[in-house]
Amino acid sequence: MNFKVNPIFTTETTSILDTINAFSNKGILFGNGQRNIIKLFDLKDKTINIKSFKIPNLINKIAYKYFRKSKARRSFEYATILLNKGVGTPQPIAFLENFNWLGLRDSYYVSEHLVTELTFRELVEIPDYPDRENILRQFTRFSFDLHEKGIEFLDHSPGNTLIKKNLDGNYSFFLVDLNRMEFHESMTFEMRMKNLCRLTPLKEMVATMSNEYAKLYSESEQKTFDTLWKYTAEFQEQFYRKKRLKKKLKFWKK
């Protein structure tokens, strides 16, 4: 077993470990649990969020033991890096990895549970969402700040940014599902645009984001839009191609 606790929560180490060990029998299910299972628990005056990652296949069992860090460990370490860089994410609390003779058996990531008004997905799915354009522009500035800090969030997709309205009317953004990230000294324009291409298929949203991003970066609004829309269209085509292929391959399940 490999178990690490955020120093802030050292006094709760035993309680955290006991809670993880009770994961299968206790807790409130959060989300649909299709791939990874997330449950909510109480820890003193906090609600905590424990993610149990899908049992890895044979190759990954071995890889996560000997060659690369598990998703749970990466989530914990990347959350720590983000907070140190001033980027919003739920407070990391702990991670646990269980190994057997073959490799990684199971793993868990523990973080503080945040209750927020929406995710980026609502901006895509609800065209008349209140204050939508303002939120989208603030989100674009948040993404620009990520890029300026060299943070390439590889899962920068609609469900992975939590959005909370502040008392002053502005918004705070929190990244979740953190196990795929890369950190750079700097990011090129192409890298930046490609990093935003999974967020929305809507051209009007891409236009608003391009307009706001171009105010902050040294490229024209037209080039920003053309580049971002090119990568967006490519991603959408690839996404639906994979979806059609999966549907054909799984015809026997009907």
What's this, in brief?
This protein has 254 residues and is of the alpha+beta class.
Structure description:
With 254 residues, the protein is of the alpha+beta class. The chain has two domains: 2-112, Phosphorylase Kinase, domain 1 (2-Layer Sandwich); 118-244, Orthogonal Bundle (Transferase(Phosphotransferase), domain 1), CATH 1.10.510. It contains eight helices and eleven strands. The chain has helices spanning 13-21, 58-66, 71-84, 120-125, 132-148, 189-195, 203-216, 221-249, and strands spanning 2-5, 28-30, 37-43, 46-52, 92-99, 104-112, 118-119, 151-153, 161-165, 171-175, 181-183. Strand 9 and strand 10 (171-175) form a beta hairpin. The model has no long low-confidence stretch (mean pLDDT 92).
CATH topology of the largest domain: Transferase(Phosphotransferase), domain 1
Write down the CATH class of the largest domain.
Mainly Alpha
The helix/strand series, from N terminus to C terminus, equals EHEEEHHEEEHHEEEEHHH
As a whole number of angstroms, the C-alpha radius of gyration is 20 Å
Number of strands: 11
CATH architecture of the largest domain: Orthogonal Bundle
Portion in helices = 40-55%
Distance from N terminus to C terminus (CA atoms, Å) equals 41 Å
Look at the helices and sheets and give the structural class. alpha+beta
